[in-house]
Amino acid sequence: MPKKRDLLSLLNYKQEEIYRLLSQAMEFKRRYRLSLDKQVLAGKSIALIFNKPSTRTRISFEAAITQLGGNAVYLTATDLQLGRGETIEDTGKVLSRYVDAIVIRTFAHADVEDLAAAADVPVVNALTDDHHPCQALADLMTILEKKARLAGVKLAYIGDGNNVCHSLLIGAAKMGVDFVAACPPGYEPDAGIVEAAQADPAGATVAITGDPKEAALGADIIYTDVWTSMGQEAEAKARLRDFSGFRVDRKLLSLAKPDALVMHCLPAHRGEEISAEVLDGPQSVVFDQAENRLHVQKALLAWLIGEG
Ligand code: CP
Ligand code: NVA
Asked: Are 277 and 297 members of one domain?
């Protein structure tokens, strides 16, 4: 039997694998529009373990699985014996006897790595404190759709060097997208992740600056995410203070190319990391971006466990 594949981060995905997933996702989108979804997950069950809230990720996975003929089993840690001290490894071993894949959203990235190491079935990271690879795949798909290319596109990420920023910079570097993050001091992305992305042979640039204007200048894409991620609520007040000056507003957007797109993984806090007029404005593609979660996750599940 071939070795199972996981999606824990995009670090060990090759450029051609990502291209294949993106083009498959576009094909799933086309079929969905025509109500021609194939039942490639018929008879498959997929466990969805969510230890943090979710609107897009949970519902797009559940809908994707249903539309492809599979069965989603939604669980939280409190539904599982995991919440009463059963180990993540035992959970992975047992679930592998029942289901065909495990999708997990949790806090520590190491927990997802431990689950994947113990499980015999593919494990998909639906967001950890460090990575959000499914989001980055949908982001790349959206850029490819809207700009008809990835190589040479300039993406400016403004804000917190968080999980979303990490996955986006890894994916961007692999696909030849020039990436610059503007972050306040102390909120830069993880240096090890930046270094790994910079070493990617696709040759795209990955830069970090403290100046949002410098990052936004001439950008094709302006991307932001919340200043306080799930699990960081105790720091919210300090973060509001530290991120002042990093809001994506009309003035900052005016430095980007005239046809620049505005992206946000959502949920958004209008008036914090992004002004309402920019998020809801004509350059924003955030709802197409959110929709693409559905299509890219279909491509991913079909590739990992289906006939795709
Ligand atoms: N973007 C994203 O992952 O949204 P949810 O937290 O709603 O899943
Ligand atoms: N960085 C955010 C992303 C939410 C989709 C968080 O982790 O809460």
From this structure: no
Q: Which atom number of ligand 2 is nearest to the Cα of residue 129?
A: 7
Q: DSSP for 32-98, please give it.
A: HHTT----TTTT-EEEEEESS--SHHHHHHHHHHHHTT-EEEEE-TTTSGGGGT--HHHHHHHHHTT
pLDDT one-digit tens code per residue, 30-64: 999 999 999 999 999 999 999 999 999 999 999 99
Per the structure, the complete domain to which residue 90 belongs is given by: 15-132+292-305
Is the pTM higher than 0.90? The answer reads yes
Domain tally, the chain: 2
Considering the domain architecture, whether residues 159 and 258 belong to the same structural domain is answered as yes
The question of whether 134 is a catalytic residue gets the answer no
Question: 293 CA distance to ligand 2 centroid (A)?
Answer: 15
CATH number, residue 115: 3.40.50.1370
Per annotation, catalytic residue among 129, 130, 200, 225 = 225
| CB 55 near ligand 1, within 6 Å | yes
Indicate the angle between helix axes 163-175 and 191-198, nearest 10 degrees.
Answer: 10
Ligand 2 centroid–CA 35 distance in Å is: 31
Percent of the chain, pLDDT > 90? 95
